[in-house]
Fold Cadmium-translocating P-type ATPase.
Amino acid sequence: MSKKQLVLENLHCANCASKIENKIKELDDIKDVTVNFMTRSLLFETKDEDSNEDTLLKIKKIVNKIEPHVIIKEDKKTIPLKPALNAKKIEIIKAENNSCCSRDNHEHNHKEDCCSGHDHGSNCCGGHDHNHDIINKIQPKEIKNNKKELILEGLDCANCASKIENKTREIKAVKAANLNFMNKTLVFQYDEEENIPIISEEIKSIVKKLEPQVKVLDKETIEKNNSGLKKEKSSIYKEHKKEINKLILGGTIFLIGNILNLENNIELIIFLIAYVIVGGEIVLRAVKNIARGQIFDENFLMTIATIGAFIVGQYPEGVGVMLFYQVGELFQHIAVNNSRKSISSLMDIRPDFANLKKGNDIVVVSPEEVNIGEYIVVKPGEKVPLDGVVVDGTTMVDTSALTGESMPRTIEKEDEVLSGFINQSGVITVKVTKPFGESTVAKILDLVQNAGNRKAKAENFITKFAKYYTPIVVISAALLAIIPPLFVEGATFSDWGYRALIFLVISCPCALVISIPLGFFGGIGAASKNGVLIKGSNYLEILKDIETVVFDKTGTLTKGVFNVTTVNSSNNYDKEKVLEYAAYAESFSNHPIAKSVVNAYKKDIDNSKIEKHEEIAGQGIIAYVEGKKIVAGNIKIMESNNIEFSKVDTVGTVIYVAIDKEFIGSIIIEDTVKDDAKQAIAKLKSNGVKNTVMLTGDNEKVALKVGKTLGLDKVYYELLPQDKVEKLEEVDKAKSKNKKVAFVGDGINDAPVLARADIGIAMGGLGSDAAIEAADVVIMTDEPSKIATAINISKKTRKIVVENIVFALGVKIIVLILGSLRMATMWDAVFADVGVAVLAILNAMRVIRYKKY
């Protein structure tokens, strides 16, 4: 199987987008396809990778047939995460990264990767960065492309843009060229830098010939000149100059025809001139579409309806309806574009440049050109372009764009910074730890932009509804025009034909097809602004139906920051020795509890003394240090090794320590509940969540104490990973009909449970590949209260979607009934079409503007 994403530039018709999707679904070699009208993207999956190119040609043919003015391009925004490694080497890395232990005696929901071997990852076993070493050895440095970007200011013609792109590709010194019509940017690749002036001049010559009013500007020069300046907003008139001028001219002639009392023939000529100016383009488009076999589209319907008005002698109404329709379409395009911009502005976190440090010099480059291990400088007011670690400087950063947190965060040397943070005060130097394609900002943007590809049930319903709605209404119109004049005495064709024309005007389902996906798209955007990443409209929709929330404990409801509170010793061993042996045993584990023991020891650990190390799931660790066998873990590991020991009765986690089967003491470790955990449970209850459950591998006393503190309904303790799945299935069986169960974990070691739940929610997933991969929803901070925020957004989105469906269908049905009874005019029909669409779009935008989440 193979997946591919295309960009459908200049796609303005939501109904046509739905038709394109349905037609592509009928292809034999297509497994799945989604057309996202909001992002103008087409994602398809083929059954066989070999059929990819052939399928692509078929898809282009379908798109060109339905929407010939749409420009189809491959989506090149998504950057490959890594250059391809050979299969054998990938297996080596995966094997090392997956050698992960499950320390259920200590609470097996690790906050970070945990492995049972030596030095298997940057976050593992003392942080020896062997994983990075492996990747760096087998992965060559990314070869930088010689690229140049030009801005084509004033470019408004999509067809001309395509011609400019093709002509640019024909220039000898140009290796490749791509023109993005949406942001009016022409990017070309070249072999030699000295060819840039020649290429630029040739491009200017091409542009001047095809589009003389367009200015060719150097993007780098513009960015340098405008650094720190606020971008000017383009006016609505500039963006839609051609359409507005036509409407003004046609509207003026239309008014003259209505005001002056002219003879019938002259009146007809005046109104025909106005009609051609206002609606000529639509008629021409309808004719072209009919030639391609596309009949039931809005162009055809409006053409038939308005020409029909001329035939029955309603000249002013024919022009007026077309004029009103075009004004409505203009408002609709403006509303959709503004909504796109509003949603895009919510995620305006993509960095434009990086200050790359080269010796004593600083070079401004694209973030994509910076490699792992290189150093970048981030100045006050700039976005952090890539993930990394601060090596010099102190500052305050604004993380609100990523996490929704309003309070700035203090960043010092050795602290991690993530791309998308905004530097507020000091200058910092950052060592890059991830390429741009794997950076936090790239992952977030990819998730938000592609979330609409997973459609909600309401969207799928509207897609199916639109497929049958238009033909049914058109057939009804035909019957309404033909049957009464034939069988009803006194019925005239002109009268019933006029009633039929009302049906034709109202038969386009655009109000629904646009506003429903826009509502979900806005909900996903609003969630991301509040620090919640939702992977698809389908997940946003089912969040409102959550009845039971099942929580992991460590790192989810508790901070996962463990501290050694007590050290007990016995058999003539002092406390320092007990702690020392335990630290050596735990030194190769990345579990938070293991880290707390090592941190409490406060001395360097000589790894050469450790001869063997074994982690036993659900029990603990056996390590051989200088010939001595150290056993450290819970009661189970003591009993399985036949070691006599003194049990400790406490609410903390207890690590029992033995040397050569001799019990030498115990260590008590405690975790603390998160600040907003109790508030989170209360918010969930107030949002209609009936059951809150906690699953943990911790002991009974610790688990029950946390459960009581937070007010949880049920607590299951001392569970192995497989036990968690079983308990979740028990909870799932007990849920009410049509209700959902959510599991909330750290997204790394809880993958089986996250996958089994109706919806998996990863806590504290910011920057974590495993969390983003495993979960359906990612909370970008460690705040459990954000789950209630996500549910609120889901409910608000659903409410707005239902309002739009009821409103749009309600108005259309009422006008259809009134029209058939001759109590509504074509003016009312146009309002029921484009007027309702504009109102539905404006209503859908409320989900973004709504603040009380």
